[in-house]
Amino acid sequence: MTINDRMDDVDFRILALMRDGLSDATIGRKLSRGHRTIQRRICHMMDSLGVSGRFALGLKVAELNLLAAQDLSGHARELTGLRQ
Fold this sequence. Notes:
Low-confidence stretches: 72-77
Order of helices and strands: HHHHHHH
Radius of gyration: 12 Å
Strand content: under 5%
Oligomer: single chain
Mean pLDDT: 83
Structural class: mainly alpha
Largest sheet: none
Shape: globular
């Protein structure tokens, strides 16, 4: 099982919005989900990637280049409503 098998489109949208500096509450509003749901999903991603904090999550996502594949297709930005 790969990392991408454990993460869905919502997780990638959350990561893209986190990268853009949005708070959990703002991410929840943009994705029509609750603030606590976003926090739980972030915790799940941290557990899946074996890291213990949000900063470490960002480093691991960058190290694994997880958002690059999403950005190449423009899919993540399109789904989050962000335009370049």
